[in-house]
Amino acid sequence: MIAAEAPAYCRNKHFSVIASSPAIYRTAPLEAAMMGRFYSAITGALRTKPDLRGLPLISSSDQVAGDFIKFFDRIEAMSQLKDNWDSYGAEAPNEKARFWSKAILKALFHANFMPKRVSPSVENGVMISFERNGRYADVECFNDGKILAVTSDGSGNPNVWNVAPNKEDIGHAVEFIHTFIMG
């Protein structure tokens, strides 16, 4: 995606949201070529729902690719939610929240780091969460364009920080959460 295709609130010098090559290009040449087709298709997913079902994928990658496709589909489906979707007054995720959650999901794909859940947030946006061995983390993309990340080991002292909506901060947040969850 080029910056001109981005919504007005995303047009800036940082717009090349997570455009680095994924680790899959370090695999065997045939697999890299096949996964390159998948990579090209998924990089356009920030503005459109990826239609990757017809691409030939290597069997070990099928499940991971399928899971990421389901998460992208889930975010896209959130556009159909209405305000008060939870019957407690939560706003439905808007275009800003869905856009930045797709950018984070794309960064997670490049890092080969699968979230546990992607869901609408009761705090008005989209939540991407992770859990492993008593450790929890999430990233929430709010309707006002803000992004907030949190990690917790269950001891009652969560680590909460703002994530700027740009490639560098999103990449750092994904790396930090990955290290925390897998550590």
Would you mind describing this structure in some detail?
- The protein is of the alpha+beta class and 183 residues long.
- The chain has one domain (3-9, 22-182).
- The chain has helices at residues 29-43, 59-77, 95-110, 167-182, and strands at 117-121, 125-132, 135-142, 147-152, 159-163.
- A five-stranded antiparallel beta sheet has the order 1-2-3-4-5.
- A hairpin with a 2-residue loop joins strand 2 (125-132) and strand 3 (135-142).
- Helix 2 (59-77) packs antiparallel against helix 3.
- The protein starts with 28 loop residues before the first helix and ends with a helix.
Shape: globular
Looking across the biggest beta sheet, what order are the strands in?
1-2-3-4-5
Number of strands: 5
Evaluate the radius of gyration: 16 Å
Name the average pLDDT.
76
Class inferred from helices and paired strands: alpha+beta
Oligomeric state: single chain
**Count of individual domains:** 1
Output the helix-strand order.
HHHEEEEEH
Distance between the termini: 34 Å
Instruction: Compute the number of helices.
Output: 4
Largest sheet data:
5 strands, antiparallel
| Portion of residues within helices | 25-40%
Uncertain residue segments? 1-60
Share of residues in strands: 15-25%
